[in-house]
Amino acid sequence: MKVLYPFIAVLALVAVALVGSQISGLQYLLGVALPYLAFAIFLGGFVYRVLQWAKTPVPFRIPTTCGQEKSLSWIKRDPLDCPNNKLEVVGRMFLEVFLFRSLFRNTKAEIGEGPQLSYGSSKYLWLFGILFHYSFLVIVLRHLRLFTEPIPLFVKVIEFGDGILQLGAPTIYQTDLVLLGAVAFLLGRRLIMPQLRYLSLPADYFPLLLIFSIGLSGILMRWVFRVDIVAVKQLTDGIASFSPVLPDGIGPMFFVHVVLVCTLLIYFPFSKLMHMGGVFLSPTRNMSNNNRAVRHINPWNDPNIKPHSYAAYEDEFREFMVEAGLPVEKELPPAEKKEE
Amino acid sequence: MYDGAKIIPGLIIFVVLSTFAIWYGAGDAKQVPKPEKPVGYTNCVKPTDFMRQSHMTLLNQWRDEVIREGKREQVEAGGKMYEKSLQNGCMHCHTSKEKFCDVCHSYASVTPYCWDCHMSAKKIKGLEEAI
Fold first, then answer.
1. Cβ-contact A255, A31 below 8 angstroms
2. What does the pLDDT look like over B75-127, one tens digit per residue?
């Protein structure tokens, strides 16, 4: 059920795009107006979400630690898993952002015969996750060829590298195939593994289905339902330079692709996809674990409330504590002095 | 706002990178490629729309038929016979690689590997002069 609604939603989007591509008024709406709207929502929503996070105080150091904290000099410590200063945090964040280190630590738990619970390493999530993300990055950068004129050198270099197999005409891009394969894995993982199927929500399936159909529509547009690439670039380059023109004769598959991509952009700021910005702002990763070395003061503390130590507290209430039979660290002074 | 000194520059970098396509090459005149049409011919081996979209699949198919299957028979279109060949077929009418093929290919950043083996007329001439 939880996968059915996202699936229907994606099919509905495809249907809307297919119908819209046949009606000339809707063509302009889907091909020109929608991309502007989607990009504005994406950028504005992204910035808004990050600013909302920035307004949220994180008074306590709450890094997830997976190694020995800095302690006595002869105790071996783990600077990456329990960073103590900014430099170590930067190292940790770099590995997290670029190499998905925390996914690399993924484990699986299995109940064997006995019953015996055993834990093992499980690198598939990391492997397909990183393949997916880097393929997606390459594909996005490659698409710049349609939005820039002249085309920057780095885009050409990426294209060359991606099509280096020189298979077929037009050339096969490796990342297209890797992306589809990796998304299929990430989707299959949620559908097949019972624990994950139990945990997965429509919000987990929708982006996966959406990205899969974006990739598929792009591939179909390149090899099966071909479109006139020069006309497409006239449109996309026109959009990027704020002088949009809608040339005739762009195939319907292009509109399917554009509608799906725009949906992804619009959906982005409202969804779990915000982990793109969130990974930088996650306090369990980007804080150094130096609670024992540095005193961190809660930013909303009332400065008029002074610290009240236990010794001072006992001084204040010792008489009553003794009367009530509570243990005290310092006994009452002798009785005659008390009478004074 | 907490950690604004880090978050604001981060957001600025994000926005600048996301809008790369907008500011890169902004102000440059946008030119739509106009490939030179052959003189004296009004139609190609396939309709113009097909050729615009899928000429590369046709070339790929011809390549396979001629080189791998040895089917070198000519193609008939509009009462004329054409050779299934890039240099003797296509370029019989579209004589200049630079003024025809390259115009759209460089616009769309396509680098077909036809020219790893084939040579344009201009390059052949240059080579002949060099010898």
1. yes
2. 888 788 888 888 888 888 888 888 888 889 988 888 888 888 887 777 778 88
Residue identified by tokens 């209430």 is: A317
Distance from CA of A47 to the nearest CA of B (A): 7
Residue A300 tokens read as: 């909303």
- Non-local (6+) Cβ contacts of A79 within 8 A are A88, A91
**Which residue type sits at A48?**
Y
Q: What value does the mean pLDDT of chain A take?
A: 90
A and B: number of Cβ contacts within 8 A: 97
| Alpha carbons B89 and B75: distance in angstroms, whole number | 9
How close B32 gets to chain A, by Cα (Å)? 7
List pLDDT tens digits, range A53-96.
999 888 788 899 888 999 999 999 999 999 998 999 999 999 99
pLDDT at residue A340 above 50? Answer: no
The closest alpha carbon to A156, from A140, A169, A171, A141, belongs to: A141
Q: Which of residues 122-141 of A touch B (CB under 8 A)?
A: none
> Residues B20, A144: contact at Cβ < 8 Å?
yes
Q: Is B111 on the interface with A (CB under 8 A)?
A: yes
CA count, 13 A, side-chain hemisphere, A236: 21
Exposure string of A229-264, with b = 16+ CB inside 10 Å and e = fewer, is bbbbbbbbbbbbbeebebeeebbbbbbbbbbbbbbb
- Report DSSP letters for B44-84, one per residue: -SS-HHHHHHHHHHHHHHHHIIIIIT-----EEETTEEE-S
- H, E, C per residue of A110-142: EEECCCEEEEEECCHHHHHHHHHHHHHHHHHHH
H/E segment holding residue A193: none
Per-residue pLDDT, averaged over A18-36, amounts to 89
For each of the domains in chain A, give its residue range(s) and CATH number, in order of start: 4-286 (1.20.950.20), 310-339 (no CATH)
Q: Name the E strands within chain A.
A: 107-112, 116-121
